[in-house]
Design goal:
With 310 residues, this protein is an alpha/beta fold. It has twelve helices and ten strands. It has helices at residues 17-21, 40-55, 70-82, 102-109, 119-130, 138-149, 162-168, 170-173, 192-200, 219-232, 255-268, 277-289, and strands at 11-13, 25-29, 60-65, 85-91, 112-117, 153-154, 182-188, 206-211, 239-242, 298-302. Helix 2 packs across helix 7, helix 3 (70-82) runs parallel beside helix 4 and helix 7 packs across helix 10 (219-232). The radius of gyration is 19 Å and the shape is globular. The model is unreliable at 132-137 (pLDDT under 50). The structure holds pyridoxal-5'-phosphate (PLP).
Amino acid sequence: MLEPALLPTPLVDCTDGFLARAGVELRLKRDDLLHPTVPGNKWRKLAPNLAAAVERGHTRLLTFGGAYSTHLRAVAAAAGALGLESVGLVRGEELAERPRNWSLRAAEAAGMRLEFLTRAEYREATGRAAGEGVGEGAGEAAAELQRRWGPCLVLPEGGSNALAAVGAAAIPAELPDLGERDVVCCPVGTGGTLAGIAAGLPTGARALGVAVLRGGEGYLEAEVARLHRAAYGREFDGWRIDHAHHGGGYGKVPAELAAFAERFERRHGIPVERRYVAKLLAALFQLTGAGAFPRGTRLTAVVTGLPDPE
Ligand SMILES: *Cc1c(COP(=O)(O)O)cnc(C)c1O
């Protein structure tokens, strides 16, 4: 078990004149305080996977990520803390020769062995992992990775699988008195966090995900539904994904969004991670301004992570 620093995570009121005038309440679920090196939703999604890895006698984790992947760093830190080996397959062969950036340096410092793949190799390998445990040929795909890298538990890119969704379902379970007026909100990268939140809600309450990448319409909804079937053997309703607040695409932080995040930090005294959390909060303010939430709505924004150290 990967010990959390703080669980349940704090739930704090966020008082704001703009929202108040629209009759909307905002609360922050401070999952960013969950763990210093396996923050927020990465801890929620990894914890049950790590427990399963240990139970099945695995001694090594294998996963995937880009040059600045939070998931890669989180897996490295978690494996290190539990005394497991970890292998990270990194997108971009050219990175092998360059000095390591802070993110890859942190993964290596936690004990992860990095292997750099061409984009084509990466696509093929992640395609295999994404198929792990779900469709036809899944066993064969995992077996192929294991032949190449040795016996290991393969975690998909971004860490979203059935167990990850079950882990994230603990978030709404920590929110007391959810009902008809509640909307629990989170950013959406791969959809695992939203899938868990939607599955964990009591009847009447709803979930809203804000996509941080461009062009995810349809694909992300299908991912959430696939995770629901994989984890719970059924689909859930009462959730939706907003695709209008990605700020230009994954990792893009327009000046306006950066200014919003700085203002929010100054006003409310909490650090705002820019690639996910800032987009979520900005979306909630814009949607409120556009009248998307009836008066009396109570929003709970899940602060899914910490700002990058650099
Ligand atoms: C990885 C990450 C997400 C994305 O979560 P998914 O489950 O992939 O949708 C959201 N917020 C933060 C801060 C993250 O690091």
